[in-house]
Design goal:
By secondary structure, this protein is of the alpha/beta class. The chain contains five helices and five strands, in the order H-E-E-H-H-E-H-E-E-H.
Length: 163
């Protein structure tokens, strides 16, 4: 049975696809635990899709729902390279994801343990088991490298729109 490192490496491969597409390198995979089957994959596509909701987790959850034929993602573990934002953490609660495994913390937008604790908030109708820090350094390095390059060479999409 594959372990957390195995699945996080799959998420890192998705993050590398984002990087190749000049997107922020965040990747996600969802595993249906009873069958150990990969049922959803995604990487950041906000710029490519021109969609503020096209986060890696949202894309993977849509695929997982289609694979299971239901919006409830019971008995599923979501692996993502960066601590989820409020939108994604809220969607995980709503989808009834059983477990979240993530790589590095997000001090600017983390909604699992850094800024907010949505996945464990007792006021919500569902809580997730959370395992942070899996391959954290490798996940963080991808982001550091991306933003280092971005600071020295802005992407064409960052230019002002034509008049």
């Amino acid at each position: 049975m594959p372990d957390a490192d195995h699945w996080m490496r799959q998420a890192i491969e998705q993050a590398r696809l984002a990087l190749a597409a000049d997107e922020v390198p965040i990747g996600c995979v969802i595993v249906h635990e009873p069958t150990a089957r990969l049922i959803g994959v995604g990487y950041n596509r906000r710029e490519s899709d021109r969609d503020p909701t096209a986060h890696a987790e949202m894309i993977a959850m849509r695929q997982a729902g289609a694979a299971l034929g239901h919006w409830r993602l019971l008995d599923c573990t979501l692996y993502v390279t960066l601590e989820p934002c409020p939108m994604c953490a809220g969607a995980m609660v709503n989808a009834r994801i059983s477990k979240l495994v993530y790589g590095c913390d997000d001090p600017k937008a983390g909604a699992v343990r850094t800024l907010f604790q949505l996945c464990s908030d007792p006021r919500l109708n569902h809580r997730l088991e959370v395992q942070p820090g899996v391959l954290a350094e490798e996940c963080a390095q991808l982001l550091r490298d991306f933003f280092k390059i971005r600071r020295t060479k802005p992407a064409a999409r960052d230019a002002p729109p034509p008049q």
